[in-house]
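This part of the workshop introduces the protein records we will be handling. As an example, a complete record with its sequence and its structure tokens follows.
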Amino acid sequence: MVKLFKSLMRGSLGAQVTWAEEWGKASQAKADLFKIIDAMPSVLDILRNMLESELKRLGKAVDIDKVYVNTDPAFPANEKRPSGSLWDVTVHCLNNNVSPAYIVGGDGVFFLPDTFSEQFKVNVLNTLIVEDLIAAVAAGLEKTLRTEIAKFWAAPAKTIRPDTAPLSNKQAFIEAYAVVTSAELSLSVMANNFDARLGERFAHLLDADAGRAVFEVKLQPAQDYLLSLQPCFVLDNAERPEAEMQLGNGSTSYLMHTPKNGFEFFEKNTELHSKLQQRLSLGSDQIRYLKGTQSPHAFCVETHLKGQLESVSSLLGGREKLERPLTSVLQESQGLHVLRYGINTRFYLLWAALKRTEWPLWLHAAGRDIQQRYKELEESRDEYQAAYSTVFDAHFSFKDYVVRTFAEWADRTLGEHLDPETISVHSSYTLQIAGRTIEQEETRTLTEFIVFGLHDNGYKASLTIIGAPDGSRFTKAALEQWLESRNLRLEFAGGLASTPSVDYQEAYRNYLFSQMEFAVFVARHSGKLDSTDANIISRAMANDPSVTIQGLRISAQVPALKDVLIISAREYVPSLMLVKTPRGEFELLKFSDVYAANRWLETALSADREYAALLIHPDYLHEAGKLLGSDPAQLNYRYTLDGRPVDFGLNLKAPLADYVNIAYRAEVALHKAIAPVGYRALGVEGRKRYSRLTTELKALTTVDARDNGFPTFEQFTYDSVKAQIEDILRTRGSKVSVNPDQIIVQTEEFRKSVTDVLLEGLAFEAVHPAYATKFSPKYYLVNGHPDVEKLDIRDLSSLSKTFRPGDKYAAMLKAQYQNKAHPDYAFKRAVHGRRIRSEMYCNAFADFTNGRLSTESFSAIQRIIDNLKESGGNQSIVDNASEGSVGLYKFNIGALGLTAAGDRTVGGVYIFRLKMSSGLLDLLYTPDAPDRVSFRPIAEFISSIRFRYGPFRTYYSQRILLVDQKVINDYFDKLVATVDTKPVIRTQQRSLLPDLFTFHDERVRRVLSDIDERTTGLNEIIAGLVYDNLLKAANIVSLLLPPVGTVVVAVQLMKSIYDASQSDKRGDYRAALGHVQEALTGLLTLGKAAAAGNPVKEITQAQRSFLSLFEDARTVAELVTYYTGQEESKEMLVGFFKTLMEGVGSGLSKTTVH
């Protein structure tokens, strides 16, 4: 079981994470910090500008790369007479501390190298001017470098979010440094360097205002910055206010941070002082601890930036002592190599310490030699894995491809160096519906937008470029022109080479062999393998042709599973399996035979669908497993493997070395899933239309759920009883804002809030207060509710007997949702119908790209959707049960009556009757089906019900009216109990659905029918309906980049668009695609943390999108507690969600009705 820690890192404070997840975020934070430094102009760039500026000042219009100082070979070579381009000569002189002295009349300046022809002589430049130029540049270099460095840190930092406060590069650097330091602290706790409880305390002190718990370490005399001894600081748990920390033996806890060792814990400050003395070889009075006046992050950055400036002067002043070129040394210093070295060193130590926490018991008990060899092999494995990852990304990183392709286009077309990660695109798309305008706004990074693509012609979104450099030629028009006829998903997939390059082969083999060497060492010393087993692996690694290497595959399929090898030998009975685990590491396992290996792997695949998706060829994934489970929240696939191993056809002379070709082809197949064959077949306008439809579906789904959705029964009851109690009090001269959740009724039978009493239909009798006894019902107020002295318990008793919330809710639906005269009726009806249409289109596109629909059936489906009317007028429909013609039909099942009123209709599931070249074809439309297939042959219905271990019986039953439940369940029971052939369900003319506007009325009618059928438990019925719709909406609206292709595979690949630090905030695909309830659990955890006064991490994109669907915090609290089963937390969550929802509007996606 993976151990979880509480993160102490900025941005995820309080989150439960593994140390590997924290390491990934820390590494990204480090990369972000270094990226700020790398944005600084290089020393050579500054030097080039100096030289060109000096030439411009002198009025010399020459190209420093295309004029050459040529020296006369008749004179002896001299280091003071360097030759080459003017630029090369200048750099040479500075690097070698040379003041040039050319021979007048012999040496000269020409347009070509190695020539002295007068026709190529540069008339505006001579060697004397060159000498003066170089002297001027050399004299002004120190001042210019210092000025440019200061200018960079004062300049505004780039941001892709227009709504964020502007920061200077220095301020952004301090913020980035703070994230890295907090990551160090968090990882130090995870590495068991000190107690987690103290870690939380020190995390608080690390970010405390004005460094109130910080003492800055001052060394006397001041040390050279380049020696990497500074900055150091100490966090004092006791927060002493003294101007200087006094040494003493009090055990009050201290945390010291040094450049090379990071965070170290000491009980007494005398201990840390002694440690510093020992390390620095300084006397006790040479180390002082002065009270900090700023945050430790600001202190450290100030020290580094001060050292950066000082080192310019010290290096230039001592250039004659340098052993390397001056510009290289200056660049190293300007790139803050002291800071980089310190951070990298500390991260290396943390990595080693974290790895040790995972050492198994056998390794802890092993001798020092074994432990040392383990570390060596582990380090070798990690190095080869890092090298392979670099080569792998060069071949398969979709994000790198997008960034690289755009940068090349910008350089070639615009002559500019642009990074799409630092530029964003704001898009605005509007829909006109029932006299109102729905606006869908999205803010994407340019990388995200390029992947998403343009809308089709006639439906373009309005684009705004944000973050492009001043004066840039990169405009909206340039972007649209570039993307007009291209699609980078397709280009990426089409550009994947069919065979691996030489560097890929070498990197993969080193990676695979290092993984195997480490795996066999672990398996051997942990007792999982014996010497004979280990010898088989050694022979395989030595490419022994007598060792057989084979694969495994899913039953009845052709391709072998990716990253699974079965290793055996003629004289060797067991089977050895080398398999990549869900953690991404190879592991060696021993089985009695290949059948035992099969059973183990079947279990592993069945336990993790996403793991299975990475091993199974994407073209075969949908058919690979059998979907099991009746609870929609607990579905799983069961996989069965072929009993016979797969022959890879490897080179017999070097079978294991040849496996790289198999592995490479598997990666190509996996990554081509980002743009499957069906997606390619859509054509340019078809793909643009798909992008536009996803935008429309997001907008319509948001409005249909947020603005037009039914209120929850609990919220409706709360609002109604609140208004009724306030009316009672108002008639008695009392104006009080009432909260029914905080008015508690207590009787001998129960103690509940007024809201719950009415929801549960609990009636009670109350007597006049003058006759009340201690057993009589009474009410009391909680959580600071204002006094309501004029409210009588008899008022609440009367409400409990007469309120009837079900009747009130039904009346509300009829008045607000069914009444055609209501001002919002037309809009509600139109939005719901248009959403259904948009969803049908998107589902058809998805099934076509997944290969589930033929081109002919896809076109026929679109024609039917196109022909659905939006009028709301009465349609003439023949009332008989004979088969209909082409069109959309209700799906009626069970014992059929003679009229439409007698049909048992499956809500939301329809029959598409298509006209094909071969005749009429019926497809069952099953949105949100457990297997994510939307269009399927109608003949599959009977078999799906008869498979008793599958989820489809529940899927269809949940969509049947309550009044029909018994009849349909009896019908399903008979189907399961029999095996005879049943006729395929047919369409009926009376169930034709020609008009989308009827869908809204049908939805309301079905809810009213269920309310009439059920006199108790109405909250459960309506909650399920409302909440399921909201969860579905959250699935759709939370993704900035909807995936294309087989969903599980697409999710894995689309994740590659995001860095670790962005995955939760921008691309939370796991939460968005079928795992939204995890987002709810996360919100519950955040609420509890906030209630306990603990730090709360930033919400994810899925959670932000989910919250945007609600108007009030109480409903959010209802839903979260409903799905997590923790009703007692509701009241505590309301305030937290209210605060959280105030900031939702600043998200990346926004839907507005005008």
Q: What stands out?
A: Confidence is low (pLDDT under 50) at residues 896-901, 1059-1077, 1086-1096. Residues 181-358 form one domain. The chain is about 50% helix and 10% strand.
